[in-house]
Amino acid sequence: MRRSSAQGVMYGQAVANVAGISNSDMDCMDFLNLEGRVTAGRLAEVTGLTTGAITGVIDRLEKAGYVRRERDESDRRKVFISVVEEKAAEIGKFYVPMQAAMHKLWSGYTDEELRLLLRFANDGYKGVLEATEALKGVIDTPPEKRVPLKSPKSRR
User: How many CB atoms lie within 10 A of CB 67?
Assistant: First the structure.
């Protein structure tokens, strides 16, 4: 899992390089694609970046043509960030070889095996979210008051 995750990071970095944006900007694009049209505050929330850092990300992505700022029709003070679909599709084409390789791999599994793998992936995602929140709690606690993180109990 760690190798696959690390290789996914490397693949994303290569795509970001080809797209002419930074890896952290590419990560924000991923969140925008998953979340849809969001405010800068929401993007900061889901990425864990500060609002100041998110402003820089949005500025760079907007300049590169990947996102646009849109004012809320009912509250002109509120600004949403939207992905420019045509530009996002340019990035998406770099993922086609990886998607094809994964589809080829998955075709060797039965439906029951795929359901188990999907459950495993979803449960793993929940575990990462839980661990991230725990780590944020440590970060938000002054060093002198931090309680050491517990090691997970082995299932074996």
Answer: 26
